[in-house]
Amino acid sequence: MKTLKAVADGSHAINKRLASAKKPLIILGQQILRADGDTNAYDLVKYIAHKHNVEFNVLHSNASQVAAYDLGLRNDCEFTLEDNGDPALIWLFGVDDKNLKTPKNTFLIYQGHTGEFGASQADVVLPGAAFTEKQSIYANMEGRAQQTLAAITPPSMARNDWKIVRAVSEITNHTLGYDSLIELRQRMKELSPNLVYCNENTR
User: Fold this and answer.
1) What's the mean pLDDT in 109-124?
2) Residue 40's pLDDT band (cuts 50, 70, 90)
């Protein structure tokens, strides 16, 4: 972490090499995503990459985790909640981890289509469409955005995930400003432009 901070503030010798390199590339392992003290190593590397216009990729074992990080979603099932008796709400998006442990006084929402461990523990299940039933964007191991198209219609009451979130936001009086897929993609472009240019290497 000390070395990364030195590179970030410009005091490390490698900054000269980064500045003069023609096609610099940083490849990160998934361990970099773990927080270290008050500063996350991933944030420092991302800052360094943007500062020197360096391409960087993160190798990760969890599907779509890197795209979630690009959008600012920081936690998956690798979290802990203190069981202090206070009410808690957990909303799982396709998380089916049999080792998931939640406090006793937790209201658990499961949204997805696999319906295994997460759904069996949930107080409420929100049926989401599978990848074959919706138009979606995914990031592959190279960091390239790829799009899927709906091959079949979602069954019964299943809906696209973004439509479910939009409906819940309206019920809770915190309505999101997305009424169409185009508006949602525009917001994605503001947060992480690389995710809306499909099949192109924009990193």
Assistant:
1) 84
2) confident
Which residue, 64, 91, 84, is CA-closest to 164? 91
Q: Rounded to two decimals, what is the model's pTM?
A: 0.66
> Length of the chain in residues, anyone?
203
H helix runs in 34-158, sequence order: 41-51, 65-70, 117-121
**If you average pLDDT over residues 114-123, what whole number do you get?**
80
Closest C-alpha among 96, 91, 125 to residue 106: 91
**Cβ contact 41:32 at 8 Å:** yes
Average pLDDT over residues 104-115: 85
User: What kind and span of H or E run contains 92?
Assistant: strand 88-93
Q: Which residues contact 52 (CB under 8 A, 6 or more apart)?
A: 15, 18, 19, 24
Question: How is the chain split into domains, by residue range?
Answer: 1-59, 77-195
Protein fold of 77-195: Rossmann fold (3.40.50)
Q: Return the amino acid letter for 73.
A: L
Backbone φ, ψ for residue 138 (5° rounding): -130, 155
CA dihedral sign, ordered 56, 59, 64, 65? negative
Residue type for 43, please? D
Q: Compute the Cα dihedral for 161, 167, 169, 174 and give only its sign.
A: positive
- The pLDDT-based confidence of 77 (bands split at 50, 70, 90) is very low
DSSP E strands in the chain: the ranges are 25-28, 35-36, 39-40, 55-58, 88-93, 106-112, 124-127, 136-139, 145-148
